[in-house]
Design goal:
Elements: E1 3-4, E2 9-10, E3 12-18, E4 22-24, E5 35-43, E6 52-57, E7 60-65, E8 73-74, E9 99-101, E10 110-117, E11 122-132, E12 137-144, E13 150-159, E14 164-169, E15 172-173, E16 178-184, E17 187-195, E18 203-210, E19 217-224, H1 226-253
Parallel strand pairs: 4-11
Antiparallel strand pairs: 1-2, 3-5, 5-9, 6-7, 6-10, 7-8, 10-11, 12-13, 13-17, 14-15, 14-18, 16-17, 18-19
Protein name: AAEL004957-PA
Keywords: Membrane, Transmembrane, Transmembrane helix
């Protein structure tokens, strides 16, 4: 069906480009979900002469389908990573419009553009896909240093892309942190450290992990018992004092 505008008629239009915001690669033996990108369009078949559908990853063409040749073709580094038998419809002009990616990798991240064209018209739409390699570890700990201060540490390892970490003390985000980042073989290790300003008080500690531009987020929580630490220190000091007094008394009697 042609869409009539005030200045021209449009017989070819992309009505919906479905590119997922993000895709998570499963680690271990867990099967990954199918990754399908779809390009829904409307076209007046009377104006379909010269029809061709193409997909690009960033600026590189990776897929082309011309209905008169029946089967689609994959290009470049995506050869072997596109299911060329995948059909989204039985309609002869819609059958192979979608892109089903096989064994997605981190470098599949990028802009995906679908273009549909005839001899008379051409239309393109673009969406961004972020591939996520989930972390191996995400930990929140606290330790007492040699100088007696309590250091809170939040760390994530082997994740892609580079995440953001935020540390909260009693639900208030603290900016007084030391950040360390390291990239190894394409994934990231990120750590935040913070010294508690008052280690004698109880505190609810939490750390939030997120990947910008996606809905990927996780949180770790831990309770710091400052009163118990203070009591233990007082008890230890009392024991040391008693032991020292006993040793002194024994020495004096000798």
């Amino acid at each position: 069906m042609c869409h009539i505008a005030t200045w021209s008629s449009h017989c070819l239009q992309i009505t919906n480009l479905d590119v997922p915001q993000s895709y998570i690669i499963q680690r271990g033996d867990e099967p990954s979900e199918d990754l399908v990108l779809d390009c829904e369009f409307e076209m007046d078949e009377a104006k379909s002469k010269g029809f061709v559908l193409k997909w690009k990853h960033n600026s590189l063409q990776i897929y082309q389908w011309i209905p008169v040749t029946s089967k689609p073709v994959a290009f470049a580094s995506f050869k072997g990573h596109i299911d060329l038998d995948y059909q989204v419809s039985d309609d002869r002009f819609q059958k192979y419009r979608a892109l089903k990616l096989i064994n997605p990798a981190a470098n599949f991240t990028g802009n995906y553009s679908c273009s549909v064209q005839t001899f008379e018209e051409n239309e393109t739409k673009t969406g961004h896909l972020q591939v996520i390699v989930p972390e191996v570890d995400f930990n929140l700990t606290y330790t007492r240093g040699n100088n007696g201060s309590v250091v809170v540490s939040c760390g994530v390892s082997d994740i892609y892309p580079k995440p953001e970490l935020a540390l909260f003390i009693d639900e208030s985000q603290t900016k007084e942190v030391v950040l360390s980042e390291e990239q190894l073989q394409g994934t990231y290790d990120v750590t935040l450290q913070h010294i508690l300003s008052d280690d004698s008080k109880d505190a609810a500690i939490s750390c939030q992990l997120s990947i910008p531009g996606t809905n990927y987020t996780k949180r770790r929580e831990k309770m710091y018992h400052g009163a118990a630490v203070r009591a233990n220190i007082s008890t230890l000091q009392a024991l040391l004092f008693a032991l020292a007094a006993a040793v002194f008394s024994s020495t004096f009697r000798l």
